[in-house]
Amino acid sequence: MARVFVYGTLKKGQPNYKHMINTAKGLAKFQGRGRTVEKYPLVIAGKYNIPYMLNIPGTGHHVAGEIYSVDDQMLQFLDEFEGCPDMYQRTLMRIEVVEWEGKGGTGEARAAAEGVMECFVYSTTTYPPEWVGLPYYDSYDSSGKHGLSYVLRESR
């Protein structure tokens, strides 16, 4: 099992969460909530209002999201869903545990107790330069105050 940190449309209550609970695509077990140890710019960009975490450590906010334990099948699905490696790149990032529900091996429990663990995160190093000038968010909600509702793939 791999650990994945999701900060956008795959979180609970967001437009693509249905994929995280679709066992035909693999297994994803909610472990807890967290936030990036380093600051990153989280922007909403493009004509479909997609959330992107720009891989610019030290800029922006500590981005909030959810930690999942996923099997190889779900990880492969997520790679395809996220357009990895072209649109997003899957990299390991340090995530601070804010709230932990997960049950696992002693190493996992110890990492959660210490408050920081490494998780795969889909961020991007390939983006138009003007995205750096967009507003930065610390948390994503498709129906947030920003008024930039995400456009589902089925509706594009």
Class of secondary structure makeup: alpha+beta
CATH architecture: Roll
- Domain unit count: 1
**What's the pLDDT, averaged over the residues?**
93
For the largest beta-sheet, the strand count, sense and barrel status come to:
5 strands, mixed, barrel
| Euclidean distance between termini CA atoms | 33 Å
Helix proportion: 10-25%
Order of strands across the main sheet: 1-5-2-6-7
The CATH C-level name is Alpha Beta
Protein traits:
3 helices, Hypothetical upf0131 protein ytfp, five-stranded mixed beta barrel, two-stranded antiparallel sheet
Annotate the secondary structure layout.
Elements: E1 2-6, H1 17-20, E2 28-36, E3 42-45, E4 50-53, E5 64-70, H2 72-81, E6 89-100, H3 106-114, E7 116-123
Parallel strand pairs: 1-7
Antiparallel strand pairs: 1-5, 2-5, 2-6, 3-4, 6-7
Domain Gamma-glutamylcyclotransferase AIG2-like: 4-122
Family: Belongs to the gamma-glutamylcyclotransferase family.
GO molecular function: gamma-glutamylaminecyclotransferase activity; transferase activity
Summarize the structure.
This protein is of the alpha+beta class and 156 residues long. 15% of the residues lie in helices and 31% in strands. Strand 3 and strand 4 (50-53) form a beta hairpin.
Description:
Belongs to the gamma-glutamylcyclotransferase family. Its EC number is 4.3.2.8. GO terms for molecular function: gamma-glutamylaminecyclotransferase activity; transferase activity. The structure is a single chain. This protein has three helices and seven strands; from the N terminus they run E-H-E-E-E-E-H-E-H-E. The protein is of the alpha+beta class and 156 residues long. The chain has a single domain, classed as Hypothetical upf0131 protein ytfp. The strands form two sheets. A five-stranded mixed beta barrel has the order 1-5-2-6-7. The model has no long low-confidence stretch (mean pLDDT 93).
